[in-house]
Amino acid sequence: DHESVARLREECHELRLQSAQYVTRIQALEDENRCFSKQLNHAKRVITEAKGVMFGEIMEAKRQFDQSKPGECMPPAAEGQNARRCSQLDNGQQHEPNEEVGKLRAV
Description:
- By secondary structure, the protein is an all-alpha fold.
- 79% of the residues lie in helices and 0% in strands.
- It has three helices and no strands.
- α1 (2-67) packs antiparallel against α3.
- The N and C termini lie far apart (64 Å).
- Residues 64-107 are annotated as: Disordered.
């Protein structure tokens, strides 16, 4: 019957169009996924780097603490940012977050 054949051809054509739309959408999602993966990997690298910096700062602070006398916040030779942070903490002030933490917040 000609009507059935025409109807089947129309349905087939619509299914091809839908299929093409799904393929396009899948490709867009795959592209988006690649982009998110790159962003995630970058964020992981930044966090790993920041952990390393923080670990180094902790180890330096521990070394300085181990060299300090009881009741002394930092050894007399300590200068710069760590000494300033220490005096700010002594005064009950909070120190400014370091640059690496700012970078993490920006990500």
